[in-house]
Design brief:
The chain has a single domain, classed as Vaccinia Virus protein VP39 (Rossmann fold, 3-Layer(aba) Sandwich), CATH 3.40.50. It contains 7 helices and 7 strands; from the N terminus they run αααβαβαββαβαββ.
Length: 247
């Protein structure tokens, strides 16, 4: 999972810390995924959620009958974390590239790719800013990532990713667009417990950001995205939209 910066040093510290202590909880915030050493049952369940998610997303692309079938040469997992999405993608694509800002998360992802005997995944650390790609992709996937990226940086990255999507390529991503009960002028967000960032690792504060959907659709037009399918949803106070795109 990728998180952009307000304070770059604090931002990197947060994700390296959670990647070291709670990498799976950092991807999916459920108590059963607490700690680095998950038991066999929790580890299996974690990756089954990824398999189910990828299956469902690709079924939607089939159902909406986009202009051309999904090509399966290569795929990008943006904000790959511990490989929850990269690994099931590697069963469907010839090559998968997973990128993230957290080196500790990526170390766990490498271990998981070996555990699942997946040799067609390349994991790479990035600093969260373009450029970080040297090729175009048939498919790009980003699950529960942009919601943690401040919109100004997130829109720049979204534009960059669309530039690296092949013509007729498919793209799935999710953004939050409204938070119920949010003040008109929210206080400055904090990334973690600022009083004791090293001594209280259980008190994680994942920053959430709302995106302007008008700006997103404007970007789609600029980047020649013509096939768009969207699904609305809500988690707690946060309302989100899942986008299924074809360029």
């Amino acid at each position: 999972m990728i998180l952009m910066y307000m304070n770059k040093d604090a931002h990197h510290h947060f994700w390296e810390k959670i990647g070291t202590d709670d990498p799976y909880f950092g991807v999916m915030s459920h108590e059963k995924y607490r700690g680095k050493g998950l038991d066999e049952s929790a580890h299996k369940d974690f990756f089954e959620t990824g398999e189910k998610h990828v299956t469902n997303v690709l079924k939607v692309f089939e159902k909406i009958r986009t202009q051309s079938p999904l090509e399966t040469k290569n795929a990008l997992d943006f904000g790959c974390g511990t490989g929850r999405i990269s690994i099931p993608l590697s069963r469907r694509f010839e090559f998968v590239r997973g990128v993230d800002i957290s080196s500790s998360m990526l170390l766990e992802a490498e271990k998981n790719s070996q555990f699942w005997n997946r040799s067609n995944i390349q994991f790479e650390q990035i600093d969260g800013k373009a450029p970080f790609l040297d090729q175009q992709f048939d498919y790009i996937h980003s699950s529960m990532v942009f919601q943690h990226i401040p919109p100004q940086q997130g829109m720049d990255i979204l534009s960059y990713l669309l530039d690296h999507l092949k013509q007729n390529g498919k793209f799935f991503f999710q953004v939050t667009f409204h938070t119920e009960g949010k003040a008109q002028k929210p206080k400055r967000k904090r990334f973690f417990n600022a009083k004791r960032p090293d001594k209280d690792p259980s008190d994680y504060r994942f920053s959430m950001f709302d995106y302007d959907l008008n700006e997103i659709y404007k970007l789609f037009m600029e980047k020649n995205v013509r096939k768009i399918y969207s699904v609305l949803g809500q988690t707690g106070r946060h309302q989100f939209v899942r986008f299924y795109l074809q360029k």
